[in-house]
Amino acid sequence: MDIYAIGGRLLSALLAQGIPARGVISFGEFEVMDDQSGRHQLYFGRALIDAYKAEKCENWIGITILEAAYTLYEREYPDNIAYYERDRVWKKRGDGVLLLNPFIKLHGWYESDIKGEVSKPYLNWDAPEFPNDIVGFKYLRDMAAGYANKGDFSGKVATKYHCTIAFLRDILGPEIFEWGIKISEEVV
Questions:
Q1: Of the candidates 31, 36, 104, 25, the residue with the CA atom closest to the CA atom of residue 69
Q2: What is the pTM of this model?
């Protein structure tokens, strides 16, 4: 679970800096060896190849978790994959891949803010994770809106942003998504 959380936080921090990124979490054996000169390392193996192939198939900005990276965990804790999907940590796709929600703090602080338990300014609350989520969320929305304003809904880069926004609308749900819009417009 730590690797999933670290992956989400890393992506949120990159997005907050205006750096779109995509990644894959896989699991399995791979080798690391020095090349003949001893100046470079070579990485190879099934887990690395699987991650490379999976990343090339994606058309969004986000992190996917391959089955190999969660099946051992799922065997030990059989209900947790479904539990965390209900809790909007990820969404399980039909091919068994998990799509990771990078804005877990945005999701987590929604109820508290509605109850008045989050003190403003938002960018000082639960730093740096919550502010990263707010700024990263706004970055993705602004980029998608910029492409939409130009009428670009099918370009190679534009579709990555549009697909990511569609995923976020789905994983966060309409209430949290709209709240994310509201607070990100207030603070950034």
A1: 25
A2: 0.91
Structure tokens at 59: 């058309």
- List phi, psi (to 5°) of 27: -150, 140
Q: Which residues contact 92 (CB under 8 A, 6 or more apart)?
A: 81, 85, 98, 99
What phi and psi values does residue 179 have, to the nearest 5 degrees?
Answer: -65, -40
pLDDT 10s digits, 68-109:
999 988 999 999 999 999 999 999 999 999 999 999 999 999
- Least Cα distance to 92 among 107, 57, 101 occurs for 101
CB 41 within 8 A of CB 49: no
The CA radius of gyration of the chain, in Å to the nearest whole number, is 18
